[in-house]
Amino acid sequence: MRFYERVIKYFYIVIITFLTLTGFGQMPIFKRYRIADIPGLGWLAEFYITHAMHYIFASFLIALSVYLFFDHIFIGRKERKVTPTGYVKGVMILGLIITGGLMVFKNLSGILYYPIAISILDLSHLILCMALLFYSIFTLITAKRWTIK
Amino acid sequence: MQPTITRRSFLKGTITAACSIATSSSIAKAAAGLENGQPIATLLDISKCVGCQECVYACRDVNATKYPKPQKPFPKMYPNGVKAEDWSDKTDVIDRLTPYNWLYIQSATVEIDGEQKELTIPRRCMHCSNPPCVKLCPWGAAVQLDNGISRIEADICLGGAKCQTVCPWLIPQRQTGVGLYLDILPAFAGNGVMYKCDRCYSRITKGEIPACIEACPEDVQTIGPRDEILKQAHELAKSMNGYIYGENENGGTNTIYVSPVPFDKLNSVIEKGKGKPHLAAVKDSMETGNKLAMAMILAPVAGVVGAAMKFYSINKNDD
Ligand code: SF4
Ligand code: SF4
Ligand code: SF4
Fold first, then answer.
1. Which of A52, B76, B223, B232 is most buried, by CB atoms within 10 Å?
2. Could you list the residue range(s) of the whole structural domain that residue A2 is in?
3. Same domain assignment for residues A92 and A38
4. Contact A47, B166 (CB under 8 A)
């Protein structure tokens, strides 16, 4: 793997890890399960901190996704092909960005959604996240890649 | 000018309504705050309150049917150490907020014009303009209505109490042993339902005013469209050389207090603690998140620029 690809890969892993941690931090579970009592992890139970961090890492994920999409369209297409794994993960990430984006919009002052819409968005964001995590574990074990040459 | 309503003008309104439907419908509309599609707010003139607690009892009366009826014994919760919160044996507590008491009277002994005086302050949910309890609920159980009311849907709430933690005044109160969590995984997730003032949303829909406003013999509260209420609050504050709380707190609320003494002074003498909210200055809780949301708009732009730069540099090298 070229150095450039390795950098992208680790960047992606760091972003997804922090998004998952801070995303789960939106639910009141780290305190209940005393994970926040572990030295150095207290911030996981600070809702305003995890909320801000989730926004920051979401911005990184959006920037990275848009970059890789156009990079593939303009340059990568000539030398590599997206695998079914790549398409499935791409769609999941797109779903996460759309549901997440709609929730960010909802949090602005004066924006009201129907309660049922909020519940559906919350749940689908969570389900997409779990699906991406389990699928990523599967593709890690089976050594499936996003693209092939 | 939008009509604002106190108990007296409301009673007058109901009497007039007997003869004129137009009047009653205009009161209903003002009460619902829908006349110009803006939130309704309440004004509380602290100088008028005599601490009789009529409002507290009226609130308990009209909301009694909404109070929790928990199942006992409570399901065991894991991990050990997760505490149940049970108010069902203490439903008569009225000196703080509880799941069975959504409004209470706080008192402050202060000096006004060289004279010791006791001020009494009705306290309940502030109904913030951008309520973190609603916006940050991870489950969609808390909602904000377009008339400025925020409320917690008891059938959906799981009782994780995040709304309480993120509320600058820690308003919502938990009762264990009731609600949806019992039907999911009561041992591992959830812990009951959160309760707080819902500003009598069902009465407001019917064109009635909140019970606490109707019951007050001193006309302490006025309800009406927010801009009108703010105008009145400023006039009132000017007339008594007084101070305003709630206009800008937490980025703005729909509960505007006017007091003859500064609020930091009141805050230093009131009893504060669990179920007893402070009166300190509060910065907008959602501000950082909303600034970051604005910055998020730049993220896709950064992605496009990055890809374009790479494309350009490759093409240049090829030449
Ligand atoms: S005062 Fe607290 S509970 Fe009431 S709307 Fe504001 S954040 Fe929510
Ligand atoms: S508005 Fe209704 S629910 Fe809220 S304190 Fe007054 S009576 Fe109680
Ligand atoms: S009923 Fe009116 S005067 Fe009596 S405690 Fe309530 S707000 Fe104060």
1. B223
2. 1-60
3. no
4. yes
Mean pLDDT over each residue of chain B, to the nearest integer: 89
> What is the CB neighbour count within 10 angstroms for residue B318?
6
Residue nearest to atom 6 of ligand 1 (CA): B128
Min mean pLDDT across A25-29, B10-14, B126-130, B177-181 is at B10-14
Of B156, B160, B307, the CB nearest to A67: B307
Which one, of B175, B148, B28, B21, lies nearest residue B89 by Cα?
B175
Name the residue of B54, B94, B123 to mutate for ligand 3: max ligand atoms within 8 A of Cβ: B54
- Distance, CA B161 to ligand 2 centroid (Å)? 21
Token digits of residue B233: 């609050």
Whether residue A5 is found in the same domain as residue A41: yes
Distance CA B43, CA B172 (A): 21
- Specify whether A99 is located in the same domain as A141: yes
Domain shared by A90 and A128, yes or no: yes
Residue A68, in any domain of the structure:
no
Which among A78, A119, A125, A126 is the top mutation candidate for probing chain B, defined by the most B β-carbons within 10 Å of its own β-carbon?
A: A119
DSSP structure class, residue B48: G
For residue A2, give every residue at least 6 positions away whose Cβ sits within 8 Å of its Cβ, in sequence order, or none: none
**What does the pLDDT look like over A46-90, one tens digit per residue?**
999 999 999 999 999 999 999 999 998 888 777 888 899 999 999
* Residue A65 belongs to a domain: no
Q: Is B177 left (phi over 0), alpha (psi -120 to 50) or beta?
A: left
**pLDDT tens, residue by residue, B8-38:** 555 444 433 333 333 344 455 555 555 556 8
Are B42 and B222 spatial neighbours (Cβ–Cβ below 8 Å)? yes
Q: Global pTM?
A: 0.91
Same domain, A52 and A3: yes
Query: What pLDDT was estimated at residue B80?
Result: 81
Statement to judge: residues A86 and A149 lie in one domain: yes
Three-state SS for B303? helix
Q: Are residues A101 and A144 in the same domain?
A: yes
Shared domain for A53 and A111, answered yes or no, is: no
Identify the structural domains of chain B with CATH numbers, from first to last: 12-318 (3.30.70.20)
Q: Which residues pair with B244 in a beta bridge?
A: B258
B240 CA to middle of ligand 1, Å? 28
